[in-house]
Amino acid sequence: MTDPQPIAEKARKGRKGAGLTLRDVARLAGVAPITASRALNTPDAVSETVLKKVREAVERTGYVPNLLAGGLASKKSRLVAAVVPTIVGPVFLETVQSLTESLAAAGYQLMLGQSGYENSREDALLEAIIGRRPDGVVLTGIMRSPESRKRLLASGIPVVETWDLTPTPIDMLVGFSHENIGIAVARHLHAAGRRRVAVIAGVDERSRRRAKAFSDEAVRLGMAAAGVTEIPLCMVPAPTTLGSGRTGLADLLGKNAAIDGVFCSSDILAMGVMIEAQVRGIAIPTQLAVMGFGDLSFSRDLHPKLTTVRIDGTGIGKVAAQFIIDRADGLQVTDRVHDIGFTIIERESV
Length: 350
Description:
With 350 residues, the chain is of the alpha/beta class.
């Protein structure tokens, strides 16, 4: 068999960094390029002897097949791109993990991008993703710029929007209504006897909609001072932090000492609120009820245990992955909008 070292050196020096090709591997294995291609892509089509030679050549050279070139012929890249605002906050990690596992089981790999919240990088990120023609794109939320929406529609790539709800998605959607969550939380606090409530929310658009729906329902239920059309609101940067929860409660109490319930747009914020309340000697839930959003793993371990809104992130990932897989296999997705719903998890903080 040919020595792999000169071949690798030629690849590095002679093709301006192009790297090893299938032709180099074939030469090292002593077979034709088409035979090497069959050995890598359809191993059952070649003899055991040929297969062994090609695999040894691949191992010796470190060759990685050009999946894009293969994908152009097969019209499949076996890659799916997902875009989340951040991985600093853990709320999206369950969905990312579920997507990764569900896609891997079907032979796909997940590429992950972070768009950010304020001054979002989503437009540039989507342009780069579309140019690489993945087999599917999974997005967080439904708020796209007109340019990105146009590019996604024109690409023909299957798109699944998640963590939100609309009857008019770009393509497919699996999520839930942020407005319905706000309404349900207001009703839950009202049923618990709270009459002067407030909100601490991140500045991102989805948190704002939850907060607005909560405020409107709370006012309708008489949970605001007479003549007031909205309840006290403290906006904090996204992604939210424990420190923002502490300063948020301090800000609210400085202006509205009588509040007896707080809805937080994340469990991280809620934990910060609970710490600040305990530092100030405010008993939870006797004097102040606290509700979060996300049902993160620590929520059940706090003292008192946190009442929160549970989102089935695993379910979102599984459904989104199946949508992409079905479309990549040429199947029709009839239920293109899937409302996965939400659950209020009652614990000790209300």
